[in-house]
Amino acid sequence: QVQLVESGGGLVQAGGSLGLSCAASGRTFSNYAMGWFRQAPGKEREFVAGVSRTGGNTDYANSVKGRFTISRDNAMNTVYLQMNSLKPEDTAVYYCAADRTWGFGVRIALTEYNYWGQGTQVTVSS
């Protein structure tokens, strides 16, 4: 089992930037594909970005492509989400997720992830 703790959320003006971190503990971090999801009030949780267990492959939701960057540091047991050119519609609780895998692909479906963090609030003001 792996434990995930997100940090870095906050309030930012539209057009600004914010970086999220997710620290993992409990198991070999490099055995897990990682992802970021978000959930806005009244909406379903949605995929934002994913990275393979080695960091060699990434994928993004169309709504954030070109603005967000996911990365990981397996030596630090941490996955990051750098968010630039933020928009009010990016306002949500952001969740880190992990999936134990032997493969090298990216997980994009919510149901593929077995472990979740508690979430961190990101608010973008207009």
Tell me briefly what this model is.
By secondary structure, the chain is an all-beta fold. 0% of the residues lie in helices and 50% in strands. A hairpin with a 6-residue loop joins strand 5 (46-51) and strand 6.
Could you walk me through the main structural features you see in this protein, from its secondary elements to its overall organization?
The chain has strands spanning 3-7, 10-13, 18-25, 32-39, 46-51, 58-60, 68-73, 78-83, 92-100, 115-116, 120-125. It has 126 residues and is mainly beta. A hairpin with a 6-residue loop joins strand 4 and strand 5. The N and C termini lie far apart (40 Å). The mean pLDDT is 96.
Give the secondary structure arrangement, pairings included:
Layout: E1 3-7, E2 10-13, E3 18-25, E4 32-39, E5 46-51, E6 58-60, E7 68-73, E8 78-83, E9 92-100, E10 115-116, E11 120-125
Parallel strand pairs: 2-11
Antiparallel strand pairs: 1-3, 3-8, 4-5, 4-9, 5-6, 7-8, 9-10, 9-11
